[in-house]
Amino acid sequence: MGIQKLLLVALSLPVVAACTSTPGDLRQPVSALYCDNFLIYDMCAQDLDDDGTVELVYFADTNEVFLWREGADKSLPEKLLMHRCAQQMDDDIINNTSELFFISDETNYIERADIKSALMFSYAVFMPQVIRCNGQFGIETPEPVGDEFDF
Fold it and tell me: Is 89 left (phi over 0), alpha (psi -120 to 50) or beta?
């Protein structure tokens, strides 16, 4: 089953690439905060300056930032704290996560699935560092359960 999921992600990347914004893109973000369930976590992505680009991704239940864009760690909203294993985002994850701000009621299921698939692929790059960091603190990283592509 794992190979099928990886294949699904790999096959959907060209579709996501066609949907992503470009520097001259005239689309306007629908919101500056997007919260949803990813794998087993409820997470939120936040655009602090309303420019359509993500600055922070945090756990909705603990308000702990686990992914941050360079410089955003210096201007956290009061309710948020940095997770001890937080990682700085690379350009790939910034671009993929920023697509969440353009999801509207008109965004169809396929487009939503493509965005989530690209995010899962991007997040997987950070998993080894997060697992290693959590292990240093005696925290076991839970395995995903259920349908991570549930919308």
Answer: beta
Give the DSSP per-residue string, 42-66: EEEEE-TTSSS---EEEETTT-EEE
pTM: 0.73
Mind listing the pLDDT tens digit of every residue in the chain (151 residues)? 433 343 333 444 434 444 444 444 578 999 999 999 877 789 999 999 999 999 999 999 999 999 999 999 888 899 999 998 899 999 999 999 999 999 999 999 999 999 989 988 888 888 888 888 878 877 665 555 444 444 4
Pull the structure tokens for residue 24: 């001259």
Between CA 15 and CA 147 the distance in angstroms is 21
**In the beta sheet, which residues pair with residue 67?**
57, 87
